[in-house]
Design a protein that fits this description.
Rossmann fold, Sec1 family domain-containing protein MIP3, 4 domains, Sec1-like_sf, Sec1-like
């Protein structure tokens, strides 16, 4: 058996559909575009004969005349659509493609969501035969729109016009713009299109798909599971704008911190109808991914949501484990993100985390452009997996030095003179800027070195102000909290209040675009993130302080008062989920005079009490309490392992500790093993004769696959690699993955901010 390579597996999946994409116009949605950029798929697609690669969400009439493959002279007669979304969500865009390309006779639709997953979702409009149902739906909707607009004179029959060459089509674009605008308005706002999946007869006569006097439009609907975003050959996350990553991982109940995170584990089983859609989609995604990689799994889970995903995976794989003996055996460990909230909230020594935290984000559904310039296979990837993989195990200083080294090598390759001061030492943003300007002196050099240039520009942002000082300030503040947590709860709560009070002096980043005296200081939202970290540390160090909270009633009340005062001081800077419904009062309060301010403050404080929770009700736990309880109980399980003690160990994240313990074959309380099909066979069959199968160990597997439900950060990846190395297991192939790649700001938005899920993407 060969080694596991996620990028190679993804590229091979594209080769498997070469018959569909040869000579076709390829449309990809934003999630698929993320994946294809990271695996370097565009040269392969051109090699396989794709005419053009276009954005599904931002379709244009110009797509019909773009031709990257000059050997094809005739207009395209087929299109291929690859989406990371449910078919019902992508329906309007798919329909728009068919209406726009009137010379197309063949359309192949590929979705990363399996047919069974489509039907498994409670709210899905498609049934057990989802792909066939959607095939019929798409044909019917297409036919209705064509006939409607033929009557209005906006369209002619597909074959009633001579096929035009690209040049002749180009001359008609201005007149066809009017046709497009009419089509776009009529069906995009048609309520029947959105409602059609639940109202139509999907098994109508196939004659519906024929136009009177015209050729038949051939449509196929297929599954394409390998839409992943590899950071390296063995580390990946899901596309941020795909359905699986955007779906809810928890329902709206008291155990939920955020829809984008698994619920706090209670040990209670899920009701069948209460399973979050994100858990269902994740289970189906992992099942097909593992099958595509030719692996068979021994499944383990830690956390309630992971447990239900593991159960679904076991049920789905039960038909195949016995018959497919030739597959490579691997261990799959599913972990709820809420088992360890501290690690992704903290600002650790990871260059990649620091880089990603500094880059701007683009809002969901903003245009994701596909470049229409030709590429060749010898070009370097654009911020692709080859660079990211080398940066995964680098700290902040080492990562910056590595970027500088690559830049110096690129300058040397271009035979450009370098400043004698440009040596491998301390790296500054101004130095990088000067060097990259020299490298991008002309268009040819820019294209040849575009990958390293883009990475250097991102590094320049991370090293510039205020990003650099803000990260360093977080690191210092987190060290102070860690020291305070080793003292007393009073010391820790006092330090948290100091951070909140100090933040009042700092303008929010939205109000202060000019970095001045506040440079390096932390604003109120930063102080709230530090408060969350403080609560988690309190849960670890003072688990028995009181029955329901890590701090005493007086300490909790003082913390609440500090938060209320900070909100009243700068109400416009507090875009927080727990203040929903109080925005108008806060804005009115900010415009009143001092006397009225007192009355308003009292009202806000009273309302805030309601939002915060009853301080005297022992049965009421707020989200901070839930997070520290789960955090402390999980970490105490591992820190009790005597062999893995020491200061270095205590500073590591839970993933490092968990992996080290499993490799050392320690028992982990709460870790559940989901029997494989072979195991159940022995248990129910030969087990009657004393031939039962022993429970396998996760650490005994040659391939270890860890998936964190809710997301991972690059520091955890670095530490997991260290765990493998320190336990002298060079034979182990480690695959690390998660729902998304998290930064501390992402965690703030998920738990306290206005975002419910991580649907933001890097520009």
């Amino acid at each position: 058996m060969g080694s596991v390579d996620l990028i190679t597996s993804s590229l091979n999946s594209i080769r498997e559909i070469s018959g569909h994409i040869a000579g076709a116009i390829l449309y990809v949605d934003a999630g698929c575009l993320e994946a294809f950029q990271l695996i370097g798929a565009f040269p392969l697609l051109l090699e396989l004969g794709v005419r053009a690669i276009c954005s599904l969400e931002n379709l244009s009439l110009l797509d019909a005349i773009v031709d990257w493959n000059t050997s094809l002279a005739e207009p395209a007669t087929k299109i291929v659509i690859i989406t990371s979304r449910l078919l019902s969500d992508a329906h309007r865009y798919i329909l728009r493609c068919l209406i726009t390309h009137r010379t197309v006779l063949h359309c192949a639709v590929f979705t990363s969501i399996s047919e069974i997953a489509h039907s498994a979702l409670i709210d899905s409009p498609l049934g057990p035969d989802a792909f066939h149902e959607y095939h019929s739906l798409l044909l019917q909707d297409y036919e209705e729109i064509v006939k409607r607009h033929e009557k209005e004179g906006l369209l002619t029959h597909r074959n009633s016009e001579h096929i035009q060459s690209p040049d002749s089509q180009n001359t008609k674009l201005s007149s066809e713009d009017n046709i497009w605008s009419g089509l776009d308005t009529s069906y995009a706002n048609d309520p029947n299109i959105e409602a059609s999946p639940s109202k139509r007869n999907f098994y109508a006569d196939e004659s519906v798909s024929k136009e009177d006097g015209g050729a038949r439009l051939s449509i196929s609907v297929n599954h394409f599971p390998m839409i992943i975003c590899p950071i390296s050959t063995r580390v990946f996350v899901l596309p941020s704008e795909g359905t699986v990553a955007e779906s809810r991982l928890s329902n709206d109940n008291e155990e939920s911190l955020s829809p984008g995170l698994p619920a706090i584990s209670t040990g209670l089983p899920f009701d069948g109808e209460d399973v979050p859609p994100g858990a269902i989609l994740t289970a189906h995604f992992l099942y097909h991914l593992v099958d595509k990689m030719d692996l068979k799994m021994e499944i383990f889970s830690l956390g309630d949501t992971s447990k239900i995903i593991g159960k679904m995976l076991t049920d789905m794989s039960s038909l195949y484990d016995v018959s497919r003996r030739s597959k490579m055996s691997a261990g799959l460990l599913l972990i709820d993100r809420t088992v360890d909230l501290l690690t992704p909230c903290c600002h650790g020594d990871s260059f990649l985390d620091r880089l990603l935290s500094s880059l701007p984000r683009r809002e969901r559904n903003s245009p994701a452009q596909v470049k229409s310039a030709q590429s060749s296979s010898d070009h370097s990837p654009v911020l692709g997996a080859s660079y990211l993989e080398a940066l995964l195990d680098r700290g902040a200083k080492d990562g910056a030095l590595l970027i500088k080294k690559w830049l110096l090598e690129a300058l040397q390759s271009e035979k450009l003179s370098m400043n004698s001061k440009a040596r491998l030492g301390i790296t500054s943003a101004s130095e990088l800027r000067a060097m990259v300007k020299k490298l991008a002196r002309d268009q040819n050099s820019l294209i040849r070195n575009r990958g390293i240039i883009q990475l250097v520009l991102a590094t320049e942002i991370a090293l510039s102000e205020p990003h650099s000082s803000r990260w360093d300030a977080f690191v210092s503040a987190e060290k102070i909290l860690s020291v305070s947590s080793s003292d007393t709860s009073q010391s820790l709560s006092s330090q948290i209040r100091d951070f909140i009070n100090t933040s009042i002096l700092v303008r929010s980043s939205q109000q202060d675009k000019m970095v001045g005296s506040s440079e390096g200081l932390l604003n109120f939202q930063d102080a709230l993130l530090l408060s969350t970290i403080g609560y988690i540390l309190a849960g670890e160090n003072f688990p028995t302080a009181v029955s329901t909270a890590p701090f005493s009633w007086e300490e909790e009340h003082a913390l609440k008062e500090a938060v209320v005062e900070a909100i009243l001081e700068r109400p416009s800077s507090a875009k927080l989920r727990f203040l929903h419904g109080l925005e108008n009062d806060l804005e009115a309060n900010s415009r009143k005079d001092d006397e009225k301010n007192e009355n308003a403050a009292e009202k806000i404080s009273d309302d805030f009490d309601d939002q915060w929770g009853s301080w005297d009700d022992d049965e009421t736990d707020n989200q901070n309490e839930q997070s520290y309880v789960e955090e402390s109980s999980s970490k105490r399980r591992l820190t009790a392992l005597s062999k893995l003690g020491g200061d270095t160990y205590s500073r590591k994240g839970l993933l490092y500790k968990l992996l080290s313990a499993l490799l050392a074959k320690y028992d982990i309380p709460g870790l559940e093993y989901h029997s494989s099909a072979v195991g159940r066979f022995f248990k129910t069959g030969f087990g009657r004769f004393g031939l039962g199968q022993a429970k396998p160990s996760f650490g005994d597997q040659s391939v270890l696959f860890i998936f964190v439900v809710g997301g991972i950060n690059s520091l955890e990846v670095r530490e997991a690699m260290e765990a493998i190395s320190e336990n002298s297991r060079p034979d182990v192939e480690l695959i690390l993955s998660g729902t998304t790649l998290l930064t501390p700001d992402d965690m703030f938005n998920l738990m306290l901010g206005s975002s419910d899920s991580m649907s933001l993407q890097l520009k």
